[in-house]
């Protein structure tokens, strides 16, 4: 929202607690809401992201993550507005640090992934829809418990922490993500597109890199495996972002730039070492 406003784009944020109230699981209310607001573009960031809750209640995961996207796509098709849907990288597993292209076969290990994959199909029924497969870090998040916030807390308090050494991602900092999303919208990008960091790294490597960047040690952190997590989670989430880079005409950040951006946004005065 901040990045869009900086570009002079009029924005309105809608969710159950946002200034504009809507519960997307009430499909009739969602449809009426979209008709009343008549947006030129819909950027759908709504999701039930708690993997354990999705696993316990697949119907709820579908009701929040997938089914409303069909209503948004129908609205976009009827009115000519553009749908940009934020998807996930939660679709790949078993091949380590590999970066996955948009056309690579997916493996759906849990209900979060299944509901998000169904959402992509719904979104793509709208002409010109853009589906962004991504993973990002930053703050403040709606829950205050995002990976970036957790990593910062672990680093600042030096508390004991288990770091996944075998779950690979290409997380982008949320500030670079926002600029890239807006640039891709300007560029008229459509279809499924990967958007992440240009390097693939483990979650442990990310936390350790951020700690180093902030000049801190992690004496009580230990390396563990994502297979120890309660719900089955994919482990090879790396994204090949070369198509996005070609559309953007610039390289996306690597791990070093991602942690630099996080350090800068923790302390914009530059006091961070
Ligand atoms: N964080 C990541 O690393 C990551 C990685 C891959 C993909 N993603 C995707 O990025 C998007 C945003 O994720 P996030 O991590 O920022 O999650 P988040 O902080 O939990 O945000 C989810 C948003 O969905 C809204 N929402 C949930 N249920 C709703 C409902 N029934 N009706 C209306 N709004 C509802 C929430 O607002 P209210 O509670 O106010 O309704 C909240 O603003 C999601 O599509 C997620 O799948 C995130």
Describe this structure in words.
By secondary structure, the chain is of the alpha/beta class. The protein has one domain: Rossmann fold (3-Layer(aba) Sandwich), CATH 3.40.50.720. The chain is about 40% helix and about 15% strand. The radius of gyration is 19 Å and the shape is globular. It binds NADP nicotinamide-adenine-dinucleotide phosphate.
Secondary structure layout:
Blueprint: H1 2-6, E1 14-15, E2 20-21, H2 27-37, E3 41-44, H3 51-56, H4 58-79, E4 82-86, H5 111-123, E5 130-134, E6 136-137, H6 147-157, E7 161-164, E8 168-169, E9 172-173, H7 174-186, E10 191-195, E11 201-202, H8 203-213, E12 221-224, H9 242-248, H10 255-266
The protein binds NADP nicotinamide-adenine-dinucleotide phosphate.
Helix content estimate: 40-55%
The number of strands is: 12
Question: In angstroms, what separates the terminal alpha carbons?
Answer: 29 Å
What is the CATH superfamily classification? NAD(P)-binding Rossmann-like Domain
Q: What string, H for helix and E for strand, traces the elements in order?
A: HEEHEHHEHEEHEEEHEEHEHH
Strand order, sheet with most strands: 3-4-5-10
How many domains in all? Answer: 1
Largest sheet properties: 4 strands, parallel
Unreliable segments (pLDDT under 50, ≥5 consecutive)?
none
Regarding quaternary structure, how should these chains be classified?
A: single chain
Strand content: 5-15%
CATH class: Alpha Beta
Overall pLDDT metric: 95
Shape: globular
- Ligands and ions found: NADP nicotinamide-adenine-dinucleotide phosphate
Structural class, by secondary structure, is alpha/beta
Q: Do you know the CATH architecture?
A: 3-Layer(aba) Sandwich
Number of helices: 10
